[in-house]
């Protein structure tokens, strides 16, 4: 577990410094004397051979993670898979990829030109997953990508890093509902993602989720700095299956709306 922890420590450090600085305040609000339990992280990539989902999954698989559920988001042109470690204390990993071949020819050309800049050698070190952008991009190209696909825009601007971490609501004692977490965060000035309702899912599907709206963070484009949506914080409560064990998968309809936490 030391190697697993080291990888997540690197992801967390990058996430809180570069993508979601407000995470520290969320921690302060929700911690109850013990460290918050991270339910899962999410990573984004392009479905191209050099940087596809399997490339991001490889370092986790080397640490003992195993592929589990698969998910499709047809309207957003995304495919995703989640991974679990035999040690239940290890966070789950949700990796999605944009199906570039289903997008416009303009987007395909732009994305391929970005990925062509990636040095394959940089991908041999697992630290690339929290290394940020491995290509240069100007603000106009980012805007054009974001106009067609928010996901493409976000990934083109930020590169590799945790799109979000997720607090396990099951672990909390003074707050036992996702709605209760939302209410506390609102009182502290956080905006909650309302797309599809502030609480996505239900006990009937064995999973409830919510999230903050993404922080606005400064990104250095090749032609200057701009403030754009970065990372966000998610909250998940899992319910027991018929055998008494907690559901460990994800619900496509809910995850689809969670993606929209980074919308402009």
UniProtKB/TrEMBL annotation:
Q: What keywords would UniProt list here?
A: Dioxygenase, Iron, Oxidoreductase
Q: Please give the InterPro entries that the UniProt record associates with this protein.
A: HGLS
Q: Which GO terms describe its molecular function?
A: dioxygenase activity
Cofactor dependence is on: Fe(2+)
EC assignment = 1.13.11.93
**UniProt keyword Iron present:** yes
Q: Name one Pfam family in it.
A: HGLS
Keyword Oxidoreductase listed? The answer is: yes
Q: Which family does it belong to?
A: Belongs to the 2-oxoadipate dioxygenase/decarboxylase family.
This chain belongs to the protein called 2-oxoadipate dioxygenase/decarboxylase
Which organism is this entry from?
Grimontia celer
């Amino acid at each position: 577990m030391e190697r697993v922890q080291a990888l997540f420590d690197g992801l967390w450090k990058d996430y809180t410094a570069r993508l979601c600085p407000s995470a520290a305040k969320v921690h302060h609000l929700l911690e109850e004397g013990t460290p918050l339990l991270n339910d899962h992280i999410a990573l984004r990539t392009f479905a191209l051979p050099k940087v596809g989902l399997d490339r991001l999954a490889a370092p986790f698989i080397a640490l003992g993670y195993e592929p589990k559920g698969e998910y499709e988001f047809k309207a957003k042109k995304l495919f995703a898979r989640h991974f679990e470690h035999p040690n239940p204390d290890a966070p789950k990993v949700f990796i999605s990829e944009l199906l570039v071949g289903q997008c416009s020819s303009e987007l395909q050309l732009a994305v391929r030109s970005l990925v062509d800049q990636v040095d394959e050698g940089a991908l041999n070190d697992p630290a690339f997953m929290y290394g940020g952008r491995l290509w240069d991009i100007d603000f106009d190209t980012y805007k054009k990508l974001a106009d067609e696909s928010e996901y493409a825009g976000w990934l083109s601007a930020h590169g590799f890093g945790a799109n979000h971490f997720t607090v396990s609501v099951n672990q909390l004692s003074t707050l036992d509902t996702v709605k209760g977490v939302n209410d506390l965060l609102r009182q502290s000035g956080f905006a909650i993602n309302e797309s599809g309702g502030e609480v996505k899912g239900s006990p009937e599907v064995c999973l409830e989720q919510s999230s903050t709206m993404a922080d606005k963070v400064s990104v250095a484009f090749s032609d200057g700095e701009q403030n754009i949506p970065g990372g966000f914080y998610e909250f998940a409560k899992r319910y027991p299956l018929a055998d008494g064990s907690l559901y460990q998968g994800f619900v496509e309809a809910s995850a689809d709306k969670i993606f929209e936490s980074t919308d402009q």
